Amino acid sequence: MSFSATTKFAQPVVPLNTSATPRSNDNPSLFFKTSSFLGSTHKLRFNPLPSKAHHRRSAAVVAVSDVVKEKKRQASTNLLITKEEGLEVYEDMYLGRAFEDMCAQMYYRGKMFGFVHLYNGQEAVSTGFIKLLKQKDCVVSTYRDHVHALSKGVPARAVMSELFGKSTGCCRGQGGSMHMFSKEHNLLGGFAFIGEGIPVATGAAFSAKYRREVLKEANADDVTLAFFGDGTCNNGQFFECLNMAALWKLPIVFVVENNLWAIGMSHLRATSDPEIWKKGPAFGMPGVHVDGMDVLKVREVAKEAIARARRGEGPTLVECETYRFRGHSLADPDELRDPAEKARYAARDPITALKKYLVENKLANEQELKAVEKKIDELVEEAVEFADASPHPPRSQLLENVFADPKGFGIGPDGRYRCEDPKFTEGTAQV
Length: 431
Ligand SMILES: Cc1ncc(C[n+]2csc(CCOP(=O)(O)OP(=O)(O)O)c2C)c(N)n1
Ligand SMILES: [Mg+2]
Prior knowledge:
alpha/beta, Rossmann fold, 3 domains, five-stranded parallel sheet, two-stranded antiparallel ribbon, 15 helices, 9 strands, 38% helix, binds magnesium ion, Pyrv_DH_E1_asu_subgrp-y, PDH_E1_Alpha_Subunit, thiamine pyrophosphate, DH_E1, oxidoreductase
């Protein structure tokens, strides 16, 4: 089962839950959409536009993953996951949740500095995709990056320590929450500017293709996953990179984590056509919409998108409908979102849903899952103790990796870092 390239693919569009929504040409006057799309309760005012072009365009679009539907049909005889995989997936999702809950505690106790953006609610996306990767494959994240790092195998203690700004962190305490990076794990960041990681991911995918096709490295079949949010999809870098990746058939999967909000801006209010997955076919790559609260569905879509990239068939755009259970960052009181919307998604908690699936299908029992939870709770506790006990970086590290030419600003004529001179922080040093 595979996705087909769009323009050649004459498959009927499977509508998302938009059928109740009046089309803009149904009624020439302004109307309010009470927004059934993607489960948001946000009210949206549309301006009517002649929308024939819209209808024509959607007919060429690839539909929601048939992979999932096909598998579902077989589900009574053929489970979507084995016991071992199920436990691995559960463990990773539970780790993501427990880690983030601990971050909230530590942040409010003053152990972390700057902004800290948590991933609660979105675990099915990180786990569903990243657990399918090999070590050599690359992941490019956003500022909501702790859980992507954990799924990619960066040890919890190295992530926690980074958050504490300690020298044992995965960036020696120099990056902090939004800048997780690990060469060993091919986690290429952590980016604070939205959209900034997408070109980096495209470059990583280009490098794999170049090594394979130009340098003839037969094993260079690495795949890159670029994660980013719905708000980021209105940024030019998204479109530029889709174009380049499709043009050069790069081994990349663009994973949109559509949690319906960009800080306090509703996706429906900010985006002319909120169905992001439709933008894949516009560039000649498959676009897929998947329930991002269901890790098993995400995994099925991810399997095919990753395999497609590894086979050299090019990029895929996957839109995962998900939701964040906390505010935008830990500094956000989260007063803008409708409590009914929050409650609706809370009821679809991806960890609870997976647990139910595993137990109902006798893939795991409560005791086994409790044992996983206990192990992870201890691991997270240990990560905090490790981070707390770790030393702060030396002052001399302050300007390392900040300047391309460290001799130009960071290091004085005596060969020592200028920041080591007490006058540096007093502002009276000669620099
Ligand atoms: C280039 C740039 N513009 C604006 C911002 C400010 N900003 C920080 S987060 C954010 C919203 C991003 O929303 P989304 O992409 O949906 O990600 P989410 O936070 O929902 O995961 C914005 C606009 C930024 N970081 N970078
Ligand atoms: Mg968002």
